[in-house]
Amino acid sequence: MKKVVVGLSGGVDSSVAAFLLKQQGYHVIGLFMKNWHDDTVTISDECPWLDDSNDAMLVAQSLDIPFQTVDLSKEYKVRIVDYMFDEYKRGRTPNPDILCNREIKFDVFLKIALSLGADFVATGHYCRKSVSYIEENAPIYSLRSGLDTNKDQSYFLCQLSQAQLAKTLFPIGELQKSEVRAIASKLKFVTADKKDSQGLCFIGRVRLPDFLQQQLKPKKGMIIQIPSDFEIYHKPLPIFESKVDALLHQSQPIVYESEDGAVVGTHQGAHFFTKGQRKGLAVGGTIAPLFVIETDVNKNIIYVGEGKEHPGLYRSTLRVENEAVHWLRNDLKLSNGEQLKVLARIRYRQSLEPAVIFQTKQGLFVQFSEKQTAIMEGQFVAWYIDDELVGSGVIS
Question: What Rg, from alpha-carbon coordinates, does the chain have?
Answer without folding.
Answer: 23
